[in-house]
Design brief:
By secondary structure, this protein is an all-beta fold. The chain has strands spanning 2-6, 9-11, 17-24, 30-38, 44-50, 55-57, 65-70, 75-80, 89-97, 101-104, 108-112.
């Protein structure tokens, strides 16, 4: 299984970006998937997680970020609106499969700055 994340970049405060994470390879049934981020000098934190029926967001992104998936494309998305400088981080996608376990994407850098 390979996960490829893309869509990061430089955006001004108040702007938006959409991250994508595409899974390929021997994909089995998915337990859950999510986005995490790691700012410089900080630990990796959960941003949003999506199970078959529910979504959970970090308090800091509630109302601004939306996680979604396209099953046909084995792709997960993170729509990020009203971006703030404190959203600057490397964003990682994570898929957890029932059979083969947890896989991480390579990370995509989001920089929010004027």
């Amino acid at each position: 299984v390979q996960l490829q994340a893309f869509g990061g970049g430089l955006v001004q405060p108040g702007g938006f970006l959409r991250l994508s994470c595409a899974a390929s390879g021997s994909i089995s049934s998915i337990s859950h998937m999510g986005w995490y981020r790691q700012a410089p000098g900080k630990q990796r934190d959960l941003v949003a997680i999506l199970t078959s029926g529910t979504t959970t967001y970090a308090d800091s992104v509630k109302g601004r970020f939306t996680i979604s998936r396209d099953n046909a494309k084995n792709t997960m998305y993170l729509q990020m609106n009203s971006l703030k400088p404190e959203d600057t981080a490397v964003y990682y996608c994570n898929f957890v499969f029932w059979v083969v376990g947890s896989y991480w994407g390579q990370g995509t850098l989001v920089t929010v700055s004027s």
